[in-house]
Amino acid sequence: MSYSFNLLMVLPELVLTLGAIALMLVAAWGGTNATRGISIAAVFVLAGAMVALAGPSTTGGLAFGGLYRADAFAGFAKVLIYLATAVAIIMAPRFFARSPGEDLRPEYPILMLLSSVGMGMMVSAGDLLTLYVGLELQSLSAYVLASFMRRDGRSAEAGLKYFVLGALASGILLYGISLVYGFSGSTDFAQIALAYGRDAAAGTRSLGLMFGLVFVFAGLAFKMSAVPFHMWTPDVYEGAPTPVTAFFASAPKVAAMALAVRVAVEAMGSAAQQWQQIVTFAALASIILGAVAAIGQTNIKRLLAYSSINNVGFALIGLAAGTAQGVAAVLTYLTIYVIMTLGAFLIVIRMRDENGNPLESIASLSGLSRTRPALAWAMAFFMFSVAGIPPLLGFYAKFAVFNAAVAAGLFPLAVIGVVASVIGAYYYLRIIKTMFFDEPAGAWANAEMEPVESGLIALSALFVSPVGYLAIPLLGAWSLAAARALF
């Protein structure tokens, strides 16, 4: 295969990399005054990367000797990643403009682009080396983004916690990679699959390969904030700037989950019985802890953090099935989850008191249906949908993963998931009760006309409404085609 065709397969990453470098030069000369233009340009760069997915980037196969995989699965994940990153860039300018003493600097959209490069490499990894390089590129950008508000002690604390625990998780992952390499003799996913397959065919278990599997999944569990590696999530989500929190809850979550799916199916598919036990435990623990721990939260961002842990558990049920239908259910779930989450955070950004200071307490939503009825109804749609209450689209997302689990013979897992989802519905309904039945709290700041943000909220609410079911045939066919690319 020619080198030029290899470059065509990595065209989205090239577009993002060259765009980030060009905007970095503009930032060096233009300074803070160029921030708005750089943010707009960054969104167009992401759009260009999405257009680049239309070619060999989703159909080319293996590039650079198997280090990179350009297939439909990676293309699906990248569309979600680029969309979520673009929304996180769009919502940032007004947030920082209304934050006393904090200015949006041009490094913010550039770091978002560089993080997207890393996430793109993660979901297209065909080798453990590509996996690790992509994951670290994404993480290094994320550490800086978490502590982006320099004068805010909570933001600095969030960045430090994320960095320390992220370094620990990277060490665990790297140790697992070294074990897998040492006992399989290769870092290529196909060769690793053969090594696990030889063990399965011989009816033996290589202790080194099993330990490598455990450590690799432990490192990936941290990146997707699955229990028991979730401890960083509430503090980082609360302390990071709200647009960054929205970013953490969407794009990196998709990248980590897609990477875990690819590693499980392509590299360790022959050891499915072993990793299914790990995934099943992580799924149930994430669902239960995310539901129970969120009940006592009074901060909306911490509640959404536990909600993200809870939703990761539901997505892992689809992975535990280990089938093409299960992987398709994971992709469908991630699509609906990302849209619900971004819509909720777009409303959280609107939460400001009369002096323009950000509000994060759930109590500040009291009586919102009387003061801001449109926002209250949109938030109700998102909360009902995340809770999985029909006829909103979040119900279909849960139905898809439960159906895949039942089809794979994991009936007890599906039953426990259904029961645990009832627990999680409590705190979502509490938010709705606060907005519609409590007396209004203090007045919010006067809302300026924000057509882009308002349009995004409206589109997200429309998508999770019953109207969104019209997209199910297309979404189902696309996700199934992407899933089959792995098998």
TrEMBL record:
Biological process terms in GO annotation: ATP synthesis coupled electron transport
Source organism superkingdom: Bacteria
Reaction catalysis annotation: a quinone + NADH + 5 H(+)(in) = a quinol + NAD(+) + 4 H(+)(out)
Pfam families: Proton_antipo_M (PF00361)
Membrane topology designation: Multi-pass membrane protein
Molecular function as annotated in GO: NADH dehydrogenase (quinone) (non-electrogenic) activity; NADH dehydrogenase (ubiquinone) activity; quinone binding
EC numbers for this chain: 7.1.1.-
TM spans (from-to): 6-30, 37-55, 75-96, 108-125, 162-183, 203-222, 243-265, 277-296, 327-349, 374-393, 399-429, 456-481
UniProt keyword Transmembrane present: yes
CC terms in the record's Gene Ontology section: endomembrane system; plasma membrane
Enzyme class per UniProt: translocase
NCBIfam families cross-referenced by the UniProt entry: NDH_I_N, PRK05777.1-3
Subunit details: NDH-1 is composed of 14 different subunits. Subunits NuoA, H, J, K, L, M, N constitute the membrane sector of the complex.
The name this protein goes by in its record: NADH-quinone oxidoreductase subunit N
Organism, as annotated: Sphingomonas parapaucimobilis NBRC 15100
